[in-house]
């Protein structure tokens, strides 16, 4: 926000898949229905949903479906909604890929992003694009000024290179420990309030322009330092940046008492760092660990502190994403 860069981590443990089947009829009108299946339930999404209307309109334009677009789309989403985990973007991405598959068409990465982002802008009012990009990423993303790049990371569990192949590691700054970071995401059980958080910041920064300048500068510095820590496997330093970032977000007013309690619980259990995740005012938090024993302790501490569910995400590059 406000020009500050951000880091986003894909969560392959929370997949979203979709299938599309043709509806009968040839009257030239669009008739696309969406059903959302999640843990234990299936619900029909109102066809009047403005985000889905935009999605269908933009997809039809791209596909050149002059005879109308008629389909039933079933979206199986394992991402809890309203938690700042990108569920709307992931569902939109799965839906457009399913529709393209139905028509025997293939979407390139740029077109997929444009279609998902068109839906996101309607759903959220103003969308940065980070969710639309992260849902198709295979590595952590650095997002800056409307563009993103995947950070070079090893595959989780990659074995260390043989000694003769480790010149780059020997040349790395002190503190390098190679791959081994693990993110623990915890659901607070409360929906996030992205729109409210954005409006809160807008009003405060309008009143206090110097506060905005200081906040954006500090967040930008922390993110740039964290990218370097991530590249060199300096997990202790990376965790410190996370916790400091949370302090700034708490002081600016977009954390909650429950999120703060989860952050403190993760740190007390041995986490290397912890912070709120997503837009703020609820949703999820994310902690960092660097070994199995510490990860288990952090998960246990978060559950004891009231987290309704947790996910463990090894830091690294993943082989697959939605395609």
Automatic annotation (TrEMBL):
Keywords carried by this UniProt record: ATP-binding, Cytoplasm, Kinase, Lipid biosynthesis, Lipid metabolism, Magnesium, Nucleotide-binding, Transferase
Biological processes annotated in GO: isopentenyl diphosphate biosynthetic process, mevalonate pathway
Matching Pfam families: GHMP_kinases_C, GHMP_kinases_N
InterPro entries: GHMP_kinase_C_dom, GHMP_kinase_C_sf, GHMP_kinase_N_dom, GHMP_knse_ATP-bd_CS, Mev_gal_kin, Ribosomal_Su5_D2-typ_SF, Ribsml_uS5_D2-typ_fold_subgr
Bias (Pro residues): 153-162
Region (Disordered): 148-173
Predominant location category: cytoplasm
Residues in the signal sequence: none
Domain GHMP kinase C-terminal residues, every copy: 227-306
Domain GHMP kinase N-terminal: 59-133
Cellular-component GO terms for this entry: cytosol
Compositional bias segments (type: Basic and acidic residues): 163-172
Locations listed in the record: Cytoplasm
GO molecular function: ATP binding; mevalonate kinase activity
EC number: 2.7.1.36
Source species taxonomy: Bacteria, Bacillati, Actinomycetota, Actinomycetes, Kitasatosporales
Pathways involved: Isoprenoid biosynthesis; isopentenyl diphosphate biosynthesis via mevalonate pathway; isopentenyl diphosphate from (R)-mevalonate: step 1/3
Protein name per its UniProtKB record: mevalonate kinase
SUPFAM superfamilies: GHMP Kinase, C-terminal domain, Ribosomal protein S5 domain 2-like
Annotated family: Belongs to the GHMP kinase family. Mevalonate kinase subfamily.
């Amino acid at each position: 926000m406000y020009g500050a860069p951000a880091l986003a981590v894909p969560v392959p443990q929370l997949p979203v898949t979709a299938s599309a089947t043709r509806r009968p009829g040839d009257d030239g009108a669009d008739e696309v229905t969406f059903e959302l299946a999640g843990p234990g339930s299936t619900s029909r999404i109102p066809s009047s949903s403005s985000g889905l209307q935009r999605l269908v309109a933009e997809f039809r334009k791209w596909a050149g479906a002059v005879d109308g677009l008629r389909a039933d789309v079933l979206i199986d989403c394992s991402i809890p909604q309203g938690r700042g985990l990108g569920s709307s973007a992931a569902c939109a991405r799965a839906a457009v890929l399913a529709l393209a598959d139905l028509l025997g068409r293939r979407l390139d990465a740029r077109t997929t992003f444009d279609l998902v982002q068109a839906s996101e802008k309607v759903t959220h009012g103003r969308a940065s694009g980070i969710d639309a990009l992260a849902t198709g990423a295979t590595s952590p993303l650095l997002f800056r000024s409307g563009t993103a790049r995947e950070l070079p990371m090893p595959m989780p569990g990659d074995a260390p290179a043989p000694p003769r192949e480790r010149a780059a590691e020997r040349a790395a700054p002190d503190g390098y420990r190679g791959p081994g970071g693990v993110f623990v995401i915890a659901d607070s059980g409360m929906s996030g309030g992205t729109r409210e958080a954005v409006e809160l910041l807008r009003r405060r920064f309008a009143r206090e322009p110097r506060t905005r300048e200081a906040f954006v500068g500090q967040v930008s510095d922390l993110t740039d330092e964290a990218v370097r820590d991530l590249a060199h496997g300096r997990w202790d330093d990376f965790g410190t940046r996370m916790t400091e970032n949370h302090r700034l977000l708490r002081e600016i007013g977009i954390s909650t008492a429950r999120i703060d309690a989860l952050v403190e619980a993760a740190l007390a259990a041995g986490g290397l760092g912890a912070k709120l995740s997503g837009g703020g005012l609820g949703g999820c938090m994310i902690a960092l660990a660097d070994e199995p024993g510490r990860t288990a302790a952090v998960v246990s501490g978060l559950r004891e502190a009231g987290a309704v569910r947790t996910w463990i995400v090894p830091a690294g590059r993943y082989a697959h994403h939605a395609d």
